[in-house]
Amino acid sequence: MAAGMTDRLNHGIRALACGLLVLLLLAGPWAAAQEAAEPGADNDAPGQAEPPSTSTRLTISSGLGQRDLARRYPQQAVWLELGEGDSELALLALERDAVASGAMLIVGDEGQSAASGLHGAMRSLLADHGWAAMVLALPSRPMAPTGDAIGAERPEPAADESVMIDVAVAPDAVEPLQGYRERVQALLAAATAELSGRGYQRIVLVGVGQAALPVMQAAMGGTSGPRALVWVTPRFAGADGEAWQSGLEGLEAWSILDLANTLTGPEATGARAAVFARKGMTGYRQQRLLLSDPVSGRDAPMVVNRILAWLVLAGDGASPY
User: For the region Disordered, what residue ranges are annotated (predicted)?
Assistant: First the structure.
């Protein structure tokens, strides 16, 4: 009797072991398939799509991150309408005094956003001194494609690289540079009209770097008479080096401040002052400052104080102190 029970028990154990073995054999392919589907596992199956990279970003913008800036500074963002549904972003910091001394329209150096660099740092400082400060970005100039560049493939972006599509200039423009200049002037005219519409009667135009010539041209095109004009480390590219000189006729009564960097271009700085002297422009003043090269937000306190002090001496502003 005991022997029979032992035989039946051994038979049951053997059946259970066989069942477990079958289950293990059946689970092997399923486990391998699951492992292949895990993130990061190698998968060489033909036609298998690569998982999308999470670090490559495709951004369509004007090249200056305007939509992102509008989200970062919602209280300062002002969209300037240029017609036909076209618009550009300006950042406007309102004066923190009960009565504004005026408004400054500041155009940053080429290719920098409205919130970056020296011009971006000037907004808050000017607001503290009772001035409204509107800052515009100056887009990069269009570059004419060379024969080799036409139709050439762009290199693939690295895994952590942002892809930027510049739509600031229409690709089918017949004269890209002329269209660019007209667009910049339309932008400055819209900005000036916006400030005037807000009740600012005294508007000072400030151009940083390569914005010097567009700002001067915008001031010349104004209908409200001579305006105070400030250049901060002005630079003139190509034919602009002659264009600004030919545009000085009739500006003898203007107040112009030229803030030059003592670390760069002393010959060009001296030659610029000589041109104004030959034109008999008594309202022109050049001051040389020890600034960063290139100028940065660290230079903003010195630049702002020099501008406001000059406006007091020129009879066109309030004391910076």
Answer: 37-60
Domain map of the chain by residue range?
A: 64-141+172-314
Domain boundaries 64-141+172-314, CATH class: alpha beta
Residue 234: both structure tokens together = 């002005």
CB burial string 267-300: b at 16+ within 10 A, e below? eebeebbeebeeeebebbbbeebebeebbebebb
Residue found under tokens 């590219």: 237
pTM of the model: 0.70
Q: What is the b/e burial string over 194-218, where b = at least 16 CB atoms within 10 angstroms of the residue's CB?
A: bbeeeebebbbbbbbbbbbbbbbbb
User: Among 306, 183, 282, 175, which residue's Cα sits nearest to residue 233?
Assistant: 306
User: What is the per-residue pLDDT across 241-250, written as a single tens digit (0 to 9) for each?
Assistant: 777 888 787 7
Give the pLDDT confidence score for residue 6 in this predicted structure.
52
DSSP tag of 41: -
